[in-house]
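Entry for the shared binder. Reason: the reviewer on the internal report wants the predicted structure included alongside the sequence.
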Amino acid sequence: MSTEVKVPVLPESVSDATIAAWHKKAGEAVKRDENLVDLETDKVVLEVPSPVDGVLKEIKFQSGDTVTSQQVIAVIEEGAAASAPAPAPAATVPAPASALAAGPGTRDAGLGKAGSDDLSPAARRVATETGVDTTNVAGTGRDGRIIKEDVVAAANKPAAPSPESRGPSPATLGPRAEERVPMTRIRARIAERLMQSKNSIAMLTSFNEVNLAEVSKMRKTLGEQFEKANGVKLGFMSFFVKAATEALKRHPIINASVDGNDIIYHGYQDISIAVSTDKGLVTPVLRDAQNMSFADVEKGIVNYAKKARDGKLGLDDLQGGTFTITNGGTFGSLLSTPIVNPPQSAILGMHTIKERAIVENGQVIAAPMMYLALSYDHRIIDGKDAVLFLVDIKNQLENPQRMLLGM
């Protein structure tokens, strides 16, 4: 029986998708819930799993083609056997002369495939389960044999950045060569949103600085107990999220948005957290952050960071948000002017922490200081509102007990 594979139902804000990559070829066996193809939308990359066990009988669209919601992109023959011929036994493959001359201590790269005699039985099983190509795996067993631990290490090794994210190699291009690479849909959408923000918002940025000595002391004193109790580390971001939610309650215009000639005030704080990925910056949303504990915030951020790295963020994770926090300090940024993410009206920029000399109670001391930046839509937010909001954030972070008391 044939089963059709269709594009998932796309939300109203996403009209179509582009086929990014097929993970199976026609004629190959597939298992139920195994990822067949990646679809790239303007916001995320969606995985399309196989609905049944069988063989991928037909692929109707190739990589780069545009498809729409519920369109049939492949056909699976349910319960069929794969048509690919069985591989020849490894013993029947003659070894190259160079490999024979090299002696027992070396092995030809072609013998590194799973299933060769250079793999221990346990390593062969793990390589088959994980899909690791052991061609370039260095064996640490006797006579250079690949053992289980070698394959496990290769499976856990971080993937190299995609060409799209790092750009072409200078050595590949040459001294004055050029290479034209089309933007991905996500990158093109990011560019469109940034231009929309620039052209439609009267944007202004205000700055302040904050002494994070008390926050650092609290993390040092309670960090170990916090991690044991909650299974997650106590980071700086939870302090900023909690400070922002309290400040947004007292300055609701910062949490508002513009719709035509109307101002929409939100009675909740859905905080968008900027996360960097190989494909660009995304902003998953911590919903009802005003009701979240420090542990809830940290767990939410860790979960989103993992999903972003694995390409598992869904459209629901990215939609909405009333206020954004971005941390350029993770990359060493000392100062920046972040761009507002419409239809939001403001964004808080964190930066790197630097020990600087400050005057406190008439004494010059060294303190861990951070510059804060608030970019905002000047159409509805006055400079006074922005400055008071930043001062509110500063006061809470320099006196973190105020956050615990909602002050």
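Summary line for the report: The chain has three domains: 2-78, 94-156, 203-404.
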